[in-house]
Amino acid sequence: xxxxxxxxxxxxxxxxxxxxxxxxxxxxxxxxxxxxxxxxxxxxxxxxxxxxxxxxxxxxxxxxxxxxxxxxxxxxxxxxxxxxxxxxxxxxxxxxxxxxxxxxxxxxxxxxxxxxxxxxxxxxxxxxxxxxxxxxxxxxxxxxxxxxxxxxxxxxxxxxxxxxxxxxxxxxxxxxxxxxxxxxxxxxxxxxxxxxxxxxxxxxxxxxxxxxxxxxxxxxxxxxxxxxxxxxxxxxxxxxxxxxxxxxxxxxxxxxxxxxxxxxxxxxxxxxx
Length: 273
Ligand code: SF4
What we know:
The protein is of the alpha/beta class. The two termini are 33 Å apart. Helices cover 49% and strands 9% of the residues. A hairpin with a 2-residue loop joins strand 5 and strand 6. About 15% of the residues have low confidence. The longest helix has 28 residues. It has a 6-stranded mixed sheet, with helices on both faces. The chain has a single domain, classed as Uracil-DNA Glycosylase, subunit E (3-Layer(aba) Sandwich). The structure holds iron/sulfur cluster.
């Protein structure tokens, strides 16, 4: 009898795992039009211990509140803060990237957003339209936010480390990052997010340290000035390397859990997996 019960329990566990895998695979596929790599289907679930540090929700809430208090004591917040920073930026000529730009790409989204997404720099379409993440990579980002976190683009705030397009979409140089970073710092202070999602190596290094690599830093929680930060792959990288979608999906799921624990706003319930 005991053996039979054990077999039934094992069977139920197998069915549940299979259903969860099917559901997750459907969401990952929604990131883009490319077929999923073969390697996704049979892989075992990633080790949860590698991706998260055992920090309880109440600790994160205290950290986020502390960051919020510091920002409130030193600067204007929300829309007023962002407006003041944009005025200070003006027709910025603080680095050479000003010579080739069409528009300064300041940022877009809800000035009270609880999730801030930080990317690298404007590309061709962003430069033309003056808005971050509007090309193919931007469309993928929109799908990632909606399908995994249940958040519309308008419900988050999207920024770049660099506000003017580097020529030929090259990586920004250290002096360009140094010239532009103070404005990103101030934007983050004005926004006071509960969680920051960092996309790609340039943003990772600008926010968290020169020596970090995205392949090692992604999937782990970091902290910047009291705010939890999750790095993951840049959508432009995922367009070229669809195999990275599975890792990005896991990272975004972790963001969704933390976002919920910290009471992040959203207009509709998060998707279930
Ligand atoms: S990249 Fe930043 S610092 Fe350089 S000109 Fe543009 S806004 Fe100014």
